[in-house]
Amino acid sequence: DVDRPPGPGQVYDVNSYALAAAARDAGADVNRVGIAGNDSRRLREVVEGQLIRSEIVVIAGAVGGGASDEVREALADLGTLEVERVAMHPGSVQGFGKLGRDEVPTFLLPSNPVSALVVFEVMVRPLIR
Asked: What is the model's pTM?
């Protein structure tokens, strides 16, 4: 988080703050969670908690490399998630699905802050509006 210096191999959590600000600007009431970490059980608990109170869920850092496989595996029995490469740059790899009993629209965004914000602007902001 931004309140402590990152350790070796870590970076500051830019995404949750930037995406929360963008969502507020689009008119959403935001529940910023911050970093869920690499523990699949923790990720699932966090997402389940958000599904019962949210109309849209956005997960940054969930696509690209092995991250998307881990996220999809952790959330597999909550609904469907698809990760695809689309013709846009930045943000060509992104995911979407509907999770939980209420089939809450869930977006999987790249970890790169610029890519995450571009995908947010193109895909998530229109849904909020």
From this structure: 0.91
